[in-house]
Amino acid sequence: NKQYAARTVEQDAARAARSLAEQQAVSFATTANQLVNWMDGVDDNLAEDLTTLTSMDQVDTQEALYNTSAGEVGAQQAKLDELSATAAAMTEAGNTDFGATSLEDVQGKFAATTAALDERKAAIATAKDKQAADEQLRTAFVAAATDLSNFIAEQQAAVAADAAGSLEEQLEAANALAVARNSTGVEKVGATN
Predict the structure, then answer these.
(1) Cα separations (Å) of 141 from 35, 148, 175?
(2) Alpha carbon distance 86, 35 (integer Å)
(3) Higher pLDDT, 172 or 193
(4) I want to staple 169 with a disulfide (CB 3.0 to 4.6 A). Which of 5, 41, 71, 165 is the partner?
(5) Contact 162/170 with Cβ under 8 angstroms?
(6) 137: which DSSP letter?
(7) Kindly report the CA angle at 64 between 59 and 69, in degrees rounded to 5?
(8) pLDDT digit string (tens) for 26-71?
(9) Where are the alpha helices (DSSP H) in 46-102?
(10) How far from each other are the two terminal CA atoms of the chain, in whole angstroms?
């Protein structure tokens, strides 16, 4: 009976060790997959090339995606710490089968993801500055183009008003009008450059 009891205790301990190893492996794989999925989502959120954006609204949309991802880093760091603790416990128990994803792979991708978030923050600030400058340029161009358009309309109206008489008289009136208004027209054209 002593041998039977000892064997039963030994079998129970082996079953408990296998059960713990399975639980640790499942916990590791689950946490690793959650982290990888989050990092893939961050990659998707940062995929847009900021240099191709054409409005402040587009930059704001990208900033919102960045803010969502950056706001989740703390919780994901806690998961990475949990994953590291699980891996250490598995290794201590002699279980080094971490499945398809190793701790080093997850740690490396996590470091790359947080570095990409840091870079994105600076890139968003640059994109905002560029869009602000572009908006000033667009506003100045519209103002100059509007002034030029108004000037051209005035000149066309003046030419049309003097369009009476023979062709020679019309040409003489147009030349006189061009000389009289030349400086104003040059200023308007120069404002668009």
Answers:
(1) 48, 10, 30
(2) 14
(3) 172
(4) 165
(5) yes
(6) H
(7) 125
(8) 899 999 999 999 999 999 999 999 999 999 999 999 999 999 999 9
(9) 56-71, 73-92
(10) 103
**In this structure, what token pair is assigned to residue 118?**
């840091």
Q: Tokens for 18?
A: 């296998």
Q: Which two tokens stand for residue 87?
A: 């891996």
